[in-house]
TrEMBL record:
InterPro entries: Flavodoxin_fold, Flavoprotein-like_sf, NAD(P)H_dehydrogenase_qn. The keyword Metal-binding applies. The enzyme apparently serves as a quinone reductase in connection with conjugation reactions of hydroquinones involved in detoxification pathways as well as in biosynthetic processes such as the vitamin K-dependent gamma-carboxylation of glutamate residues in prothrombin synthesis. It catalyses: 1-(beta-D-ribofuranosyl)-1,4-dihydronicotinamide + a quinone + H(+) = beta-nicotinamide D-riboside + a quinol. Keywords: Cytoplasm, FAD, Flavoprotein, Metal-binding, Oxidoreductase, Phosphoprotein, Zinc. This is Ribosyldihydronicotinamide dehydrogenase [quinone]. The gene is LOC117533607.
Length: 272
């Protein structure tokens, strides 16, 4: 049996952090299960967060009106992306599972991790107009977010001051991971570890260790397939799909909600 390959994209400045402990636990458990685990420690790598013309070796097609998406696609095709990008693309190509481990900053990933996404997930390599969402390039791979929050769980509820965490996760899980075709596993959320006793933090890590025993076999979150939308009509939901769900209580997903109540835990639990 060929061992599974796991890439952990990790973003925290301190080796003494809870995020570091979560990352180390993942490396330990998954390695013990026979996986080949590779870690991209973005801060330790001083990974460049900005998407600029310096990411391309040699001349660009249009220096006067530089378009990163188009220029990086051409550079990827010609083998002219810088080595820091191509090395991450190699890791991603080889991986069966990608885990993004980070502290939530301003309701999203830290800038250095967003820079990894901007620079590594280039047009052509990670997606094309034809190959995206359920028909995406990485549809045979799984990906997930594992992160800490500064706020307690109740603040990220439908009645909480921060709003529903399912809504917060939609741009990351649908707009980046699912867009590139990944099967998106339910997120691992460590709620406000800096505000709980050490025993509670230990319990959180044990829960993560337990989950990892069956992580690679988990079913992904549900997203509406690309063929449910009409590409000739602005990728609107096809009438027959809309009609099929007209009498249902909830919308299809957090984003495609049809003006209905959001399906509970749509971005946090599989099979709902």
């Amino acid at each position: 049996m060929v061992s599974k390959k796991v890439l952990i994209v990790y973003a925290h400045q301190s080796s003494g952090s809870f995020n570091s402990a979560a990352k180390d636990a993942a490396v330990e458990v998954l390695t013990a299960k026979g996986c080949a685990v590779e870690v991209s420690d973005l801060y330790a790598m001083t990974f460049k967060a900005t998407a600029t013309a310096e990411d391309i070796t040699g001349k660009v097609k249009n220096a006067d009106h530089f378009c990163y998406g188009e220029e990086s696609k051409l550079a990827w095709e010609a083998g002219k992306l810088t080595v820091d990008i191509t090395e991450e693309q190699r890791k991603l190509t080889e991986a069966d599972l990608v885990i993004f481990q980070f502290p939530m900053y301003w309701f999203t990933v830290p800038a250095i991790m967003k820079g990894w996404m901007d620079r590594v997930l280039t047009l052509g390599f990670a997606f094309t107009h034809e190959k995206r969402y359920s028909q995406g390039i990485f549809q045979d791979k799984k990906a997930m977010l594992s992160f800490t929050t500064g706020s307690q769980e109740s603040m990220f509820s439908a009645n909480g001051i921060n709003g529903d965490m399912n809504v917060t996760l939609w741009p990351l899980q649908n707009g980046i991971l699912h867009y590139c075709g990944f099967q998106v596993l339910a997120p691992q959320i460590f709620w406000a570890p800096s505000h709980v006793p050490s025993e509670a933090r230990g319990t959180m890590l044990e829960g993560w260790r337990t989950r990892m025993q069956g992580l690679l076999g988990e079913n992904p979150l549900a997203f509406t397939p690309l063929d449910c939308f009409d590409g000739e009509k602005g990728y609107q939901l096809k009438p027959e799909v809309h009609e099929k769900h007209a009498a249902k209580e909830f919308g299809l997903t957090v984003g495609i909600h049809l003006g209905k109540a959001l399906p509970p835990n749509n971005q946090m639990k599989a099979g709902v």
